[in-house]
Amino acid sequence: MAAGTLYIVATPIGNLEDITLRALRVLKEADLIAAEDTRHTRKLLTHYGLSTPLISYHAHNQASRGPELIRRLAVGENIALVTDAGTPGFSDPGADLVARAWEAGVRVEAVPGPAAGVAALSLSGFKGDILFVGFLPRGEGRRLKMLQALAPEQRVIIMYEAPGRLARTLAEVAAAMPLREV
Question: Is 35 exposed, middle or buried (0-12, 13-18, 19+ CB in 10 A)?
């Protein structure tokens, strides 16, 4: 039996209508959806009347769940990987599963769509090359050291931050990079 395919499926980042027709088809036809948060993904599936089985795959279970998903792919199942919002693999454990799939010789296919960093960049009006940093370290010392290292950077910097930490991070960015537009 041929191995299945791991589909990396982008999902809406705020508005449930921001999903592609292809993403909906893949989510419907997959044997299984591996979701960062099954409760969050269930809302999307319910909205579109999809009943594909869900399994969790997140930072706290990736060490055990990753090999299980690769075994399922190896026996021919098609699995759609989704994150809570946007494209899996950007600052989430999806990148680890994709790496495992490539190592196992499993076909990996992207189903492009929304990405928070790209959406923010398109709204910013900033031009030029970009540097994607993802989430900053949570430890204050490491985070401040990273911001200081980024201070001389001339490219547009895309950082991710949780809503509850945004005010603190913006204050730290302002202190480390006082002339930087945000």
Answer: buried
